[in-house]
């Protein structure tokens, strides 16, 4: 195996990012109305070496949630700064860097909502999920929990579900992963980060089917932190695939992939209200995939390509939602 100097000098891909921000947030829960209660950032250079690190508590202005997991009580958090008070310093540490997190969809979604609430935009353009990277590298892991990834690289975890230690552990595990990717000239699984322009703090509807443990460092795949929402069955039969230049029809199965400017829950609610079915995966029965990043290598976009599923972006979809054709009378 090449040593680090050889990797850096001879085989480092020129297209790789110039810097990374390894992030972990602890939160009051998993829903859209939950809040960040602590955040940590390890800044890394282009080769994954640590530049510095930062940590803060955040007053969530509500119950702190599962204190038996993260250990942060109301008494501890009541004197902590509010998110708008730390947003500037956090932004300085994220600016110009790829956000790296374990189950990155979770950490990015929580940050995007906090920035939206504060009336700001996070200076993040791309994210990298270390779960996705581990899969790209085909690491021999029995599961994709942070503790398992850490053990694979001999990194000792000291305080699980403490944002600073989770970020440290991830930074130490990310560096050898990054070097392995560079040695193999592996394409990094970078995804676009799209800030929210429309969101809601209304209490989230009950959810079922949690697929990962609490917090941003749990197991599961990208996006699996979002538990399945309890929705009534679509009352209309599936009329088949969407056809370009024709309206959507009630009963169509619509799947979503990647970031959306409108909070995903709101977009899915509007989909159901229009008489469409929200599909959690892509199959041959899927009528349409909505994504702002059709070239990303997510499981949904790859399946859509293999099945020939029609794909539109968010802007086109929200326009189509304005005029959904009624289900066929003979359906």
TrEMBL record:
CDD domains referenced in this protein's UniProt entry, alphabetically: DEDDh (cd06127)
GO biological process: DNA replication
Residue ranges constituting the BRCT domain according to the UniProt record: 244-314
Entry keywords, A to Z: Exonuclease, Hydrolase, Nuclease
Sequence segments annotated as region (Disordered): 210-233
Any single Gene Ontology cellular-component annotation: cytosol
Keyword Amino-acid biosynthesis attached: no
PROSITE patterns: BRCT (PS50172)
Pfam families: BRCT, RNase_T
Molecular function as annotated in GO: 3'-5' exonuclease activity; DNA binding; DNA-directed DNA polymerase activity
Annotated SMART domains: BRCT, EXOIII
Superkingdom classification of source: Bacteria
InterPro entries: BRCT_dom, BRCT_dom_sf, DnaQ, Ribonucl_H, RNaseH-like_sf, RNaseH_sf
Name this polypeptide is given: DNA polymerase III subunit epsilon
Species in which this protein is naturally found: Streptomyces finlayi
